[in-house]
Amino acid sequence: NRTSRVACALGAATIVASLFAGNASAGTKQPVTPLYAGVGSHYSTPLSNPLGIFYDNVKKECYVADTGNGQVVVFNDSGMPVYRFPHFVPGRNDEPKAGEPKSLVVDAEGTIYLVDGQAPYIDVLDTRGRSITHIDVPGDSCGQPERFTHVALGGDQSVYAITACKTPRVLVITDRTIARTVVLRTNETDRACINGLTLDPQ
């Protein structure tokens, strides 16, 4: 059996993948391989402030939200970059500008759900990073455009997205629509920001 373990230091410029071969309990493993991004024509460019990572168990690929470089980089299970795509968001006069992808998941059909620090919606992308649709979110009471901090994938393929506002919410998305919303109660005098979410696969 082959087990892939991917460790991510959020906010660091380098993501390290430890690839374990054979029986992990026997202590046999391959050397740690550093992962790099690649801007322009050079794959040797280090990642810049990567804030999200997702391992696709179907295709055996690792997706990294290379936030500082405004792109997503895809690595194979050997730690080699195989594809990358920039993520754009609407700028002034709706002109595309480089975004800040923060978190993403890939469902069993290969659809990518991505949240960007510069976008008030969840971007639904195909396997090559082309936008299929946006999932817009109803306004909240904080008076600011909604933003997202993290997405996670449930065992039933539902997508869970956390909003960043005075009263954070978890949006549960099924079939590309918001199925329900869970409000996370916080101290009304403090602004809350939840940056992570883990789901029990069961």
Protein described:
With 202 residues, the chain is mainly beta. Helices cover 0% and strands 44% of the residues. The protein has strands spanning 3-7, 15-20, 33-35, 52-56, 61-66, 71-76, 81-86, 88-90, 96-98, 101-106, 112-116, 121-125, 131-136, 148-153, 159-163, 169-174, 177-183. Mean pLDDT is 74; it is low at 1-26 and 29-34.
Q: Which keywords apply here?
A:
4-stranded antiparallel beta sheet, mainly beta, single chain, disordered N terminus, 202 residues
- Look at the helices and sheets and give the structural class: mainly beta
Task: Tell me what portion of residues adopts beta-strand conformation.
Answer: 35-45%
| Uncertain residue segments | 1-26, 29-34
User: How much is the average pLDDT?
Assistant: 74
H-E order: EEEEEEEEEEEEEEEEE
Major beta sheet, strand line-up: 4-5-6-7
What's the Cα radius of gyration? Answer: 17 Å
